[in-house]
């Protein structure tokens, strides 16, 4: 039986989908079978991140009863994982029954080691169903007070619904006066952070090239951070490299 990991956030623009794609790719590189599902049915965009925006069948069609589950699963050969997109067409939304998501995911978790759910960017009906369908939750935020505060609400929501919390992950981290420091975020959260992804211009280029940054730029600090986080999630030895400026703020190695 596989494990279902919900990737959620309290607001948009924090890089949740980028994280989901790179987590799926990194877990696949470790030899795990991985399915990435775009559960943000109203605002889907995973298809753009893997270079295939138009597909005949999607999660939207499964939720509306118009196709079988396996008809909407596609292989992403560059990243060696499978993915299930949601439809870009708004015409199909009125047929969707999002309450079916958990039963769909439960059927799929028997076929993969990991099912990664790229969730919506706010706490709406889709969000609730993603929480219900997940075994564990990873909450993504950026190092600003609004994003972190919203993320803490999501963490509390997940706990109240009995979900295992992987932890809070800070994306686009850089040491700037206007950003919260790690110790400040941990003080607000009341717990150690699970990890952080540094701000990396290569991530922008990966969007242009429609491929995970961890595949295009394997030597960057962001790729190394994704690998550390994936290993922690999978219970594998966490890689450590020679200390540099980024390593000094990679607090989860302390």
Structure description:
Strand 3 (74-76) and strand 4 (81-84) form a beta hairpin. The protein has a single domain (3-253), classed as Rossmann fold. With 254 residues, the chain is an alpha/beta fold. It has helices spanning 16-29, 46-49, 59-63, 101-108, 125-133, 145-160, 182-189, 201-209, 213-216, 221-234, and strands at residues 3-9, 34-38, 74-76, 81-84, 114-118, 136-141, 164-173, 195-198. An eight-stranded mixed beta sheet has the order 3-4-2-5-1-6-7-8, with helices on both faces. It contains ten helices and eight strands. 46% of the residues are buried. GO terms for molecular function: ATP binding; ATP hydrolysis activity.
What's the helix and strand layout?
Layout: E1 3-9, H1 16-29, E2 34-38, H2 46-49, H3 59-63, E3 74-76, E4 81-84, H4 101-108, E5 114-118, H5 125-133, E6 136-141, H6 145-160, E7 164-173, H7 182-189, E8 195-198, H8 201-209, H9 213-216, H10 221-234
Helix pairs in contact: 1-10, 4-5
